[in-house]
Amino acid sequence: MTIKQELFAQAYIETGNASEAYKRAYNTQANANTISRKASQLLKHPEVIKLLAELKADARQRHKLTIDDILQELEDARQKALSAETPQCSAAVTATMSKAKLLGLDKQVIEHKGTLTPPIFHFTPVAPTKDEIKQAMKEFQEEY
Question: What is the pTM assigned to this prediction?
Answer without folding.
Answer: 0.48
